[in-house]
Specification:
Length: 472
């Protein structure tokens, strides 16, 4: 398994060139992509970027990611490239500027090999709603890779990138990371700029890394985090918690009543408890915590998120840019452009969001959801005064079969039960591979999730590395 850290050392020791590394990764991506569909597009200028990285390396000006081949989710703008967000309505849209994270990757010398497939406008938990077709799980191509950043997770898992960027609105990095057996991390809200990220739900979205190891995820995170004057929600300076001495052993809180709920596969729960026992054996303290509001995070999310979707996607109207369907009247242009341009799940969430924001229902649904969101956030913050981390399984089950949940949206939405609290509260979370379970004679990966107080990314990376050391 070639990691980013190992590739960095090899490139600096001139064991191979950035061009040779990129060629090997791109060849692997081209070989695997017809079956996996992780990439919507592999860029033909990747080798030119690798040549630039080789010049940097030869001049001794090696930036942190010089020569490292990465994938980027299709909802981040890259100047001159199509940025479709997995939707027909933007299928021919070319970005006119770089997202801040893309600019940071370029400055760090990274080689962006392509844009990865995703659920349309990041709406989904299986990467089956993409206008480019469903993404398959590299572990078992009859199963989903998770979503909405399934293409990025699959690209890393199949060896078609050493790392990748995704966006996480309710678990869209952590859930596919668990299903594909890689590491996925969602930073504190505002720690990574969202400028140039196509908005799904602006108060929930956050860009983060996928990688094969926790060390690699940390390398990517350090390359993209930091203040951005172009993003009013980006944090301006480091928090006091980041400036002190970091702990080596942590107090881990387990929300037992939450984990004991129905709908969670027993072998997934057993794997979680085994990892927790191993961490306890390594000197970490484990205690039960009470978080009675946590089960309400999912319904709160599925009110607030569609409401923000309704507002954010109103700009795609067939008039300003993107797909447009000619018609006799302006209203018909709107109706037909949006009706044909958006897929079924996007239309469902737009309608739901419009409903909860409408007169007569705003107070009954949206305002109550905002109030409960505040309650959940306060409850989590109080808990972090007693524990350093909160641990749960990342997902209630391993990767499910393609098509299994597409006809039942409520079952699909339950995939996010453990991950949405981090987005609701704006706190960081990480999913680390924790072992495997057996389904239909196939060994499938599962993940363990840790959430921490705002700005405690270092604690997440530290505990993630411990999991890598103790997992079976």
């Amino acid at each position: 398994m070639l990691t980013i850290a190992a590739a960095q050392r090899a490139l600096r020791n001139k064991e191979y060139s950035a061009k040779e590394l990129t060629q090997a990764v791109v060849s692997r991506a081209k070989e695997k992509n017809p079956d996996i569909n992780a990439y919507a597009e592999l860029f033909d200028d990747a080798m030119a970027s690798a040549e630039v990285a080789d010049r940097m390396l030869s001049e001794g000006k090696a930036a942190p990611l010089a020569g490292i081949p990465l994938g980027v989710k299709d909802n981040m703008l890259m100047k001159g490239k199509i940025s479709a967000s997995g939707s027909k309505i933007l299928m021919n849209h070319r970005a006119v500027y770089d997202a801040t994270v893309i600019g940071k990757l370029r400055s760090a010398g990274a080689v962006i090999v392509g844009r990865t497939n995703m659920d349309e406008f990041a709406m989904g938990s299986s990467s089956e709603t993409c206008a480019y077709g469903a993404v398959k799980n590299p572990i078992d191509i009859s199963r989903v890779p998770g979503g909405s950043s399934g293409g990025s997770a699959a690209a890393v898992a199949m060896g078609g990138a050493l790392g990748a960027l995704g966006s996480d609105t309710g678990g869209s990095i952590r859930q596919p990371a668990a299903h594909c057996g890689v590491v996925g991390m969602k930073p504190t809200y505002g720690r990574v700029s969202r400028y140039g990220l196509m908005a799904l739900a602006s108060s929930l979205d956050q860009i983060g890394p996928f990688a094969k190891t926790v060390e690699d995820a940390e390398i990517l995170y350090q390359a993209i985090e930091g203040h951005d004057p172009m993003d009013s929600t980006a944090l301006t300076e480091k928090h006091e918690s980041e400036k002190g001495e970091q702990k080596e052993k942590f107090t881990i809180g387990i929300p037992e009543s939450f984990i004991a709920m129905d709908g969670i596969d027993e072998d997934v729960r057993e794997n979680f408890r085994l990892i927790i026992e191993k961490l306890k054996g390594e000197g970490h303290e484990v205690k039960t915590v009470s978080l009675p509001s946590l089960p309400h995070a999912l319904p709160v999310y599925y009110i607030i998120m569609p409401a923000e979707v309704s507002a954010n996607l109103a700009r795609y109207d067939g008039i300003r840019y993107g797909f447009s369907k000619e018609a006799d009247t302006l209203m018909e242009v709107y109706r037909q452009s949006r009706g044909e341009g958006f897929g079924k799940e996007a239309r469902r969430r737009i309608l739901l969001g419009t409903y909860v924001l409408s007169a007569g229902y705003y107070d009954a649904y949206y305002n109550k959801a905002v109030a409960v969101r505040r309650l959940i956030t306060e409850e989590l913050m109080r808990t972090f005064s007693d524990v350093d981390l909160i641990a749960t399984p990342t997902t209630p089950s391993p990767a499910f079969k393609l098509g299994e949940k597409m006809t039942d949206p409520l079952k699909m939405y339950l995939e996010d039960i453990f991950t949405v609290p981090a987005n609701i509260a704006g706190i960081p979370g990480i999913s680390v591979p924790s072992g495997t379970v057996l389904r239909d004679q196939t060994t499938l990966p599962v993940g363990i999730q840790f959430m921490a107080a705002p700005f405690s990314e270092d604690a997440l990376f530290a505990i993630g590395k411990d999991v890598e050391n103790v997992r079976i």
